[in-house]
Design a protein that fits this description.
The chain is an alpha/beta fold. It folds into two domains: 260 residues, 3-Layer(aba) Sandwich (Rossmann fold), CATH 3.40.50; 190 residues, Glycogen Phosphorylase B (Rossmann fold, 3-Layer(aba) Sandwich), CATH 3.40.50.2000. The protein has 20 helices and 18 strands. Helix 4 crosses helix 5, helix 5 crosses helix 6 and helix 10 crosses helix 14. The protein starts with a strand and ends with a helix. Bound molecules: adenosine-5'-diphosphate (ADP) and alpha-D-glucopyranose. Alpha-D-glucopyranose (GLC) binds next to helix 1.
Length: 479
C-alpha cells in the first residue's frame, strides 16, 4: 500500500494470548486501531507456552543458533487478525507461571536476560534481519522492551518510541548483569543504562528513545514530578519535549455490551433495565443477597497502587450504608486477606472471587452499578473505560488517566448534563467514603443515575482518536 508504514510493537504481553493487566489489552488493540491510518503493525512477543500453542502453524522467518544461551527462532502467524511474531526460545520462555514470575510467585532469576533477548531480537528486526519485512519504527512497551532503544542508539536501526505503561516497573538489576546483556560497554554510562549503580532497563530506554509516550496526558505531567516519577522524574523533565501523553482506548468489539457472550443479557443505552439480569447472575456467582440496592464492583489487581487497602478499611461503613460490593481480583496477600475477612463478616453483602477470570470481569461491568478505582496512581486505567461503555458508573481517584477519562458529577457538570462518574481526591478514607456516599445518594435518584449511565455510554472510549496520535507521531519520527 503506498504511504504505508511498518511498525514493530514489542511487548511482554498481548491479549488474548497472555495477559496480566492493561498492557496486554493495549498491545492487542493497537494493530487494528492503527490499520485505518496506514500503519501495518506487527507484534513481537516472547514465545511463552500459550503463545507457541497459538502459533503452532506459524512460519519461521528468522533463526538464531545461539540467542543468550540457546537456539531460537521467530515464528510469524496471524492470531485474531493480528500479525504476531513469537520469539521461540525454550531456554528463556518455555516455563509455567506468568510472564514474569514462576509458580512460586518469585521473579524468574534470569528476567534481565529473558527480556534483553526480546529487545535484541527487536533491534535485529529493526536493522533488517527479516529481509522481507523491516519496520520503519520500533514501538517498545515498558521496561521489557526498552533495551531495544539502547541497542539501536549504539548500533543503528529505525526510530524508536518507548511507551511507559507504569513507571513503577522499571526493570532494575545489579550492575553485574550488564556484561551479559550483549550491549557495547559504552551503553553503561550515566546517560545510558546506569541507574544509581544498577542497570535500569526503562531508564536506559527513556534516555535513548527518539520519543517517549505514556498512556494519559495527566500521567505524562505527573511522572515529571518527584511524587510520581519514582526516581525518573529528572530524566523525564529533561525529555519533556519528546514526551507525549496519549490516552488509551479500548477494543470496542471485545467490550461491547450490545453483544457480549459473557453477559446473561446484552443491552444498550436504551435498554439499561436489562442490566438487572446481569446483576441477578452476579448475585448467584458471588453468593450475594438478592437486592436492588447499589452494588459496587471492583475488577483489579489487588495492590497498593490500586488503593484497595483503603477500600478494604471502609467495608463496615459501606455495608452499614446498605450497599454491597463484589470484587474479582488477586494480588497482595494482605489485601486479599482483608477482603476475604470482610466477606466472612458480611456474608451476602461483600464477596470476593480471588482469581483471574476474564468472563467474570465482563459480567461485573455489565451487572454492577459502579466500578470502583481508588488508585493512588493510575497511568491510564482501563476498567473505568469498560465501566463507561457498560453503564457501570466509575467512582475513581482523581489521578492519571482516571482524571482524564471520567467527568465528575459536581454541580456544574450535573447542571450541564455531562457527568459520567465520581472523582475523589486525595486518596484517603474520608474522601473515598464521601465519593461512595455521593454515588449512593445519586443512585437513589433513578433519572439522574440513568442520565449518568447514558452519558458514559455515549463517551468515545474507542481507539479512534488516540490511534491517530500514534500514527502522527510515527510519521513525524520517520520524517
Ligand atoms: P493494570 O494494567 O494496572 O492492572 P488496567 O485498568 O489498565 O490496570 O488494566 C487491568 C486489566 O486487567 C483490565 O482489562 C481488567 O479487566 C483486567 N483484570 C484485572 N484483574 C482481573 C481479574 N482478576 N480477572 C479478570 N480481569 C482482570
Ligand atoms: C499499566 C497501568 C494502567 C494502564 C495499563 C495500559 O498496567 O497500570 O494504568 O491502563 O498499563 O496502558
Amino acid at each position: 500500500m503506498p504511504g504505508q508504514m511498518n511498525v514493530l510493537s514489542v511487548a511482554s504481553e498481548v491479549f488474548p494470548l497472555v495477559k496480566t493487566g492493561g498492557l496486554a489489552d493495549v498491545v492487542g488493540a493497537l494493530p487494528a486501531a492503527l490499520k485505518p491510518h496506514g500503519i501495518a503493525m506487527r507484534v513481537l512477543v516472547p514465545g511463552y507456552p500459550a503463545v507457541m500453542a497459538a502459533l503452532a502453524k506459524g512460519r519461521q522467518v528468522h533463526g538464531y543458533a545461539d540467542l543468550f544461551g540457546g537456539a531460537a527462532r521467530i515464528l510469524l502467524g496471524v492470531v485474531h487478525g493480528m500479525e504476531i511474531m513469537a520469539l521461540e526460545a525454550a531456554h528463556l520462555y518455555d516455563r509455567p507461571g506468568n510472564p514474569y514470575v514462576g509458580p512460586d510467585g518469585r521473579d524468574w532469576p534470569d528476567n534481565a536476560i529473558r527480556f534483553a533477548a526480546l529487545s535484541t531480537v527487536a533491534a535485529d528486526i529493526g536493522r533488517g534481519a527479516l529481509k522481507t519485512w523491516t519496520p520503519d519504527i520500533l514501538h517498545l512497551h515498558d521496561w521489557q522492551a526498552a533495551l531495544a532503544a539502547v541497542d539501536v542508539r549504539h548500533r543503528g536501526g529505525p526510530r524508536t518510541v518507548v511507551t511507559v505503561h507504569n513507571i513503577a516497573f522499571q526493570g532494575q538489576f545489579p550492575a553485574s548483569v550488564f556484561p551479559r546483556l550483549g550491549l557495547p560497554a559504552a551503553a553503561y554510562s550515566i546517560e545510558g543504562l546506569e541507574y544509581y549503580g544498577n542497570v535500569g532497563f526503562l531508564k536506559g530506554g527513556l534516555a535513548a528513545a527518539d520519543a517517549i509516550t505514556t498512556v494519559s496526558p495527566t500521567y505524562a505531567r505527573e511522572i515529571c514530578t518527584p511524587e510520581f516519577g519514582m526516581g525518573l522524574d529528572g530524566l523525564l523533565r529533561a525529555r519533556r519535549h519528546n514526551t507525549h501523553g496519549i490516552v488509551n482506548g479500548i477494543d470496542t468489539a471485545i467490550w461491547n455490551p450490545a453483544d457480549d457472550k459473557a453477559l446473561v443479557s446484552s443491552f444498550t443505552a436504551r435498554t439499561l433495565a436489562k442490566r438487572r439480569d446481569n446483576k441477578r447472575e452476579m448475585e448467584k456467582r458471588f453468593g450475594l443477597e438478592k437486592d436492588d440496592g447499589i452494588l459496587h464492583g471492583v475488577v483489579s489487581r489487588l495492590t497498593w497502587q490500586k488503593g484497595l487497602d483503603i477500600l478494604a478499611s471502609q467495608l463496615d461503613w459501606l455495608v452499614a450504608s446498605g450497599a454491597r460490593l463484589a470484587i474479582v481480583g488477586t494480588g497482595e496477600p494482605g489485601i486479599e486477606g482483608a477482603f476475604a475477612t470482610a466477606a466472612q463478616r458480611h456474608k451476602g453483602r461483600v464477596a470476593i472471587v480471588m482469581k483471574y477470570d476474564e468472563a467474570l470481569s465482563h459480567l461485573v461491568q455489565g451487572g454492577a452499578d459502579t466500578m470502583l478505582v481508588p488508585s493512588r496512581f493510575e497511568p491510564c486505567g482501563l476498567t473505568q473505560l469498560y465501566g463507561l461503555r457498560y453503564g457501570c458508573v466509575p467512582v475513581v481517584a482523581r489521578t492519571g488517566g482516571l482524571a482524564d477519562t471520567v467527568i465528575d458529577a459536581n454541580e456544574a457538570a450535573l447542571a450541564a448534563g455531562v457527568a459520567t462518574g465520581f472523582q475523589f481526591s486525595p486518596v484517603d478514607e474520608p474522601s473515598l467514603q464521601n465519593a461512595l456516599q455521593r454515588a449512593g445518594n445519586m443512585f437513589a435518584d433513578a433519572p439522574q443515575w440513568t442520565k449518568m449511565q447514558v452519558n458514559g455510554m455515549a463517551a468515545d472510549v474507542s481507539w479512534d482518536r488516540s490511534a491517530k496520535h500514534y500514527a502522527d507521531l510515527y510519521k513525524q519520527l520517520k520524517g
